[in-house]
Design goal:
The complex is a heterodimer of chains A (about 220) and B (about 500).
Chain A lengths: L16 E5 L3 H12 L4 E5 L2 H7 L6 E6 L7 H10 L6 E5 L4 H10 L3 E4 L4 H33 L3 H11 L4 H8 L3 H15 L4 H13 L2
Parallel strand pairs in A: 1-2, 1-3, 3-4, 4-5
Chain B lengths: L1 H65 L15 H4 L3 E7 L8 H13 L3 E6 L4 E6 L5 E7 H4 L15 E6 L2 E6 L7 E9 L8 E9 L5 H76 L5 H29 L9 E4 H11 L1 H6 L5 E4 L4 E4 L1 H19 L9 E8 L2 E8 L27 H11 L3 E6 L5 E8 L6
Parallel strand pairs in B: 10-12
Antiparallel strand pairs in B: 1-4, 2-3, 3-4, 5-6, 5-8, 7-8, 9-11, 12-13, 13-15, 14-15
Classes of the chains: A alpha/beta (about 220), B alpha+beta (about 500).
């Protein structure tokens, strides 16, 4: 394994980090240099196993993986990463890509499959797409978690009311269904809007409909 | 070797079994035929002898009925003329009403005859070859003395009594008269025929026997059969072995092609990886350098380093190519040439490609104008001829069956031996002709474009040449020339 390399162009510490795994030092260095020219930080790895053991799974970024490496195939590494729930997008690089290999890579969850020698435009665009995708996915993930946390604070009755609101019932209908006075329903409704931090009915339904359906 | 012997043992066993079965059938047929002949002859003998004894009854009956009277001396009696007419009748005796028989046996027989109302046997002397027959009548009774040997109608006898292997005898009351001795019986298959003669008065048994010995079996035909079975089995075995050998040769050829393709595939994959790594580095470095130079201000030092790296990697790629060339460089073919019979090489290739020809309905014609022995490396020769033939066959696929002709001509051309392969396929387009021997140049989709290139290289390395032209009418003509073996001083 190699230690994190300082990026040639020196970026902010929170900028995305690209992990580059290739057994060939010349390829590793040149690709790192190329990726660095667009301001992305690069960490290079010569040993796939060391990468799997040590890389930072929390950071934002993407993974560039060579298919053909001694000892362990890039496709096997990809399978391992997916099995471990790694969410960084993976871009595969190969010297001679067959259709079969390409199909396998995409099926295993690769974000992109590029042939060596790789065109700079293609690689950099793929990397920027991958990073954007990763950021979005992390944001969505975070929002989901927040929604789940807030939902957990609701009382049993409030959850029942929320379920009927999402189902499209009016306060009157909800009162009848739950054997409550419309006034009480109104109170529950105000409470759950406050607890969930929802500003409108539309927002409430967009963020919490999925949670109601999945108990 | 052990396996071969085991297989061979089965062939021997099959030979023995078939031979034995055939021999038994032949022997049985022969025996049935012999028996048939034997019984026919025995029946003829029985009939002939029966006719004679019936005749004796008739003579006596006639005498008893006519009662010829003796006028004058007894010798002049009419019945005394009978022995002259019938050679088997030795004597005729007559007893007048009041007369007396010379022997008491005759008298006893006459009494019996009178009681039975038919002729009866008197003195039976088979050892002496005679017997007497008596018929009681009124007024005179008669007796015939009959010679057994003379009784046999030899002129009509079916067998030669002296030489025939069949024994024939008359038997009566423990006495036996041998008509023909036959051959002494040994081991073998005995036939027997025994039947009474067809006259109550002379109820002799005709006993005919014959023994077919082992030596009489049809050994000649058995030997012929044995040889024929051996020949057919040998022929069959040869045919099967030849077929197996051909199947094996075809399999080897196919395997060879597959192996070659596999090797080539491995080589290509290895080469691609080995070259791709430095090329990737070269490309990434130069692209990075361009980006660095485009920046404002340009990062000259980093760009310079990237370019140096690119040069370094380009050199590495060049080294890979050099190493590859050295790895696949062919050993010196010129030093391994030996006299090779050119028509032989062509025939061998045609033999191996026979199924390919048949599949395409192509009947190749080989014209050997004169015997040609060239100096070449045998394996390379096989490869060249095989490739040229395959090439022609593939070209012929593109024209209708009726137009497919493949002509191979072997002759001398000065100090060179020459093989010309002419097909009537679509031929070679003029723009293709100059590039036809270039490696990786192919007009066939999926073709590697290495076949003809390899042939040309091999031919050149052996001091020969391979050229391609358009055939006179249409199609392609490939001409392979190789130095001929100099005549031995």
């Amino acid at each position: 394994m190699s230690p994190p390399t300082p990026t040639p162009t020196g970026s902010a510490p929170l900028s995305p980090l690209i992990h580059l795994i290739d057994d060939d030092a010349a390829v590793r260095d040149s690709l790192a240099l190329l990726i660095g020219t667009v301001g992305l930080r690069v960490q290079t790895w010569s040993d796939p196993q060391a990468f799997i053991d040590r890389f930072d799974r929390q950071g934002i970024g993407a993974i560039v993986l060579d298919v053909r490496m001694p000892g362990i195939s890039g496709l096997t590494v990809l399978d391992t990463l997916v099995a471990q729930g790694v969410d960084q997008p993976v871009i595969m690089l190969t010297g001679h890509g067959t259709v079969e290999m390409c199909r396998r890579a995409f099926k295993a969850g690769a974000a992109e499959f590029l042939e060596k020698p790789v065109n700079d435009e293609q690689l950099l665009e793929a990397l920027q797409n991958a990073v954007r995708q990763h950021v979005r996915s992390r944001e969505r993930h975070q929002a989901d978690r927040q929604a789940r946390d807030r939902y957990a604070q609701l009382s049993e009755r409030e959850r029942e009311v929320l379920g009927l609101i999402v189902a499209g019932l009016t306060n009157k209908e909800i009162g009848r269904a739950l054997d409550l006075s419309p006034r009480t329903v109104e109170t529950h409704r105000a409470n759950l809007f406050a607890k969930l931090g929802a500003e409108s009915l539309a927002q409430l339904i967009r963020h919490y409909a999925a949670l109601v359906e999945a108990p | 070797m052990v396996r071969q012997w085991q297989v061979f043992r089965w062939w021997i066993l099959a030979w023995v079994v078939i031979t034995l079965a055939g021999a038994v059938v032949l022997a049985r047929l022969e025996l049935a035929q012999q028996k048939d002949r034997f019984e026919t002859n025995a029946r003829i003998m029985h009939r002939l002898l029966s006719q004679r004894v019936v005749q004796h009854d008739a003579i006596l009956a006639t005498l008893a009925l006519l009662q010829p009277t003796a006028e004058g001396p007894a010798e002049a009696a009419p019945e005394q003329r009978l022995p002259a007419l019938y050679p088997q009748i030795l004597a005729v005796q007559r007893r007048e009403r009041d007369g007396v028989w010379p022997s008491p046996a005759l008298a006893a027989s006459e009494a019996e005859s009178r009681q039975l109302k038919r002729a009866t046997l008197a003195a039976l002397d088979f050892r002496g070859g005679r017997y007497q027959l008596v018929l009681a009548a009124q007024p005179a009774s008669f007796a015939l003395t009959i010679d057994l040997r003379a009784m046999v109608p030899w002129s009509e006898w079916p067998l030669a009594p002296a030489s025939s292997p069949v024994r024939a005898a008359l038997e009566q009351a423990g006495q036996q008269f041998v008509l023909q001795p036959g051959r002494p019986a040994g081991a073998g298959w005995p036939f027997e025929f025994r039947k009474h003669l067809a006259a109550d008065s002379q109820p002799f048994d005709v006993v005919v026997t014959q023994t077919i010995g082992w030596d009489e079996l049809p050994w000649g035909r058995v030997a012929l059969w044995t040889l024929a079975v051996a020949a057919v089995l040998a022929w069959l075995r040869h045919g099967l072995r030849q077929r197996a050998a051909r199947a094996r040769a075809e399999e080897l050829l196919r395997l060879g092609q597959v192996a070659r393709l596999n090797t080539l595939g491995e080589l290509a994959a290895g080469m691609a990886h080995e070259l791709n790594q430095p090329l990737t580095a070269v490309m990434a470095n130069t692209q990075a350098a361009r980006r660095l130079l485009d920046e404002d201000p340009p990062e000259l030092d980093t760009a310079r380093g990237a370019m140096a790296q690119a040069v370094e990697q380009a050199r590495r790629a060049s080294d890979v190519v050099g190493r590859l060339r050295r790895a696949v460089e062919r050993p010196d073919l010129a030093g391994q040439t030996q006299p090779v019979d050119l028509p032989d090489v062509v025939r061998r290739a045609l033999y191996l490609l026979e199924p390919e020809c048949q599949r395409r309905s192509v009947a190749p014609v080989l014209e050997v104008v004169e015997p040609v022995t060239v100096l070449a490396e045998p394996v390379a020769m096989d490869q060249i001829v095989h490739n040229l033939l395959m090439n022609a066959l593939q070209a012929l696929e593109q024209v209708p069956v009726t137009q497919r002709r493949l002509t191979l001509t072997v002759d001398r051309h000065g100090a060179l031996g020459r093989l010309r392969v002419a097909d009537t396929g679509p031929g070679i387009a003029p723009e293709v002709l100059p590039r036809i021997f270039e490696p990786f140049f192919s007009t066939r989709t999926g073709g590697l474009g290495l076949g003809l290139s390899l042939c040309e290289t091999l031919a050149t390395h052996m001091g020969g040449a391979l050229s391609a032209t358009r055939n006179e009418a249409h199609g392609a003509l490939f001409t392979l020339t190789l130095p001929r073996q100099p005549p031995t001083p």
